[in-house]
Each structure stands twice: as C-alpha cells, then as structure tokens.
Amino acid sequence: MKVKHALMIGLLGRGVDRFHEYQPARSLPERLSMVRQIEGVDGIEVVYPAEFAKAPETLRLLRESGLGISAVNVNVKGEAKFRHGSFTSPDPAIRAEAVQYVKTGMDLAAELGAGQVTCCPLIDGHNYSFQVDYLEQWHWLVEGVRQAAQHRPDVRVSLEYKLNESRNFVVLGNMGQALHLCQQVGLPNVGVTLDVGHALIARETPAASVCLAADAGRLFYVHWNDNGREWDWDMIPASVNLWDTIETLYYLDRLGWQGWFSYDVINRDSDPVATQQATLRAMHAVERLLDKLGRVELGRLIHSGDPAQAMEFLLGRLSS
Question: Which of 21, 92, 164, 284 is the most buried (most CB within 10 A)?
Fold first, then answer.
C-alpha cells in the first residue's frame, strides 16, 4: 500500500451549521499557511467553484504552495440555481450547467496535476413521495455524468455517494447505486469515492464497500472520517468505530491501494490545526495497530469464521 495524505482545504475555513458558527472565514493564503503547520500532509483537496473566483491567482497560490493536489472537488449543490437539483434538475439548462462545472473541474485538475475530480451530488434526490420521477431522474444523472466524463478521458470522475443531506433521499445513496451508475455510464474514467462516514450512515460495512468497489475496478478515492452511524458528523477517524477503521485499512492494504487518503473532518471543538493534526496522527496510529495485530493473524481469523476467537485475539493483542 502506498498512501499520500491530503486535507480538504475548505474545512480550515468557515465552519457553520444551522445554529452556530464554529470557525470564521479565512482566505486561501491563510488556510495554506495553516496546512504548513501540520506534519505529514502531502497535499490538499480543493473545491471548484469556491476557490476559483480568481482562477489565475488561485492556480499561482496552489503551485507556489508546493503541495500536491489530490482532487478537485466539484460542488454542484451550494448555489441557489441548484435548489431543485443539479444533474437531475427539471431545467435542462441547469443540468447542462452542472455538467459544465464538472468539465471545468476536470480541466483544472489536469492543469494542477491532480488527474481526478470528485463530486457528491447531494442536492439531487427527493424529500417526499410522488415528488420526482425516479426513472427520469436516474436517466438524467447517468447522461449528465457520461457527458461530463467524455470531456477528458485522461481525468477521472470519482462520484461520492451519501444516504441523505441535502435531500432526505439522495439519488446516489449507497455503494450499490454508485457502482450501478458506473456500469450504466460505461466509461473507464468514472468511479467511486468511498467516504467512510457515508458508508457508515448507509448502514454499510466500510471494508466490504471498499472490496466491492475495488473488485469492480471503480475505487478511485477515499475520504476518511467517523460518526455514530446516525448522521454525518465528520469526526476524527477511529474516534467512534475503531474496528471498522482498522478493518477498512486492512483491506485497502491487502488490495495494494495506491493513491490518496483525503480527510473530511470538521472542527467544532478544538483549534482547526490541532484537529487536522490529530486526524493524521490517528490514521498513523491505526496503521501501527494494524502492524501490531498482524496481517497474517488477521487473515487466519477471517478464514476461521469464529467471532469469539477473533474478539479474544483482537482485544488481547491491543491490551498486551
């Protein structure tokens, strides 16, 4: 396994929910300066269009930073025009604009040497029964992704699924739907971003979802965070689901993962630099735990199929 670690640069800026502002807005130079204070960072994930209002200046700052760019995250949910959907908007002009956003993001990714965009279509879905035509909506999504991905075969389009938020039911809600979409689009540069927290709230086993996506040849990117399986809290990895985190890393290692880990962790309670530093250290600690448990021993336990034996070994090894 060969891993590079990236931070989502936007999460070092303004942090807000419906009730409170946790962090103030910060300029891109300020956030890049914060990244330089964090040990172990290889790169950053940047958002289009938010970071590119002055594209030439942004490109200059990113190049001068010396940081790698893991992906360009294309946001097709936050602006008022996407209120009724992006790829699945009833308005064909809005659907075309969502496609163009991805195309522009792909051009930026190529220019920055990232080679991929990631996109989570959270505004596409429904809230009530009989609100949308599910067949029509799905076909619009497939066609929109296909049109975008055909723009540049040299840049990958990695789609991130999520069960809900902003819609009660997001059209791309779980790994099965994401892989079905990839198959229907039928292009080799379309794959899946596995967000561990999104897998958890979809009641998936993240390690199993990793295996499904990898087996299909569609695992392009990984976002790490944690939650209590009830809401996407974007907590520090392994802070809640330690065993799921270790197991997911075990399978990524077994599959020979070569690529980026990006950290989608929101700071509400600590200094943002300290939170991101703790995030990276948590992942390194999980790597050490995996070494301590032993890959051969874990493989043997898996093939034994005996959970009592497995739990006794796992807890015993950690306590030794």
Answer: 164
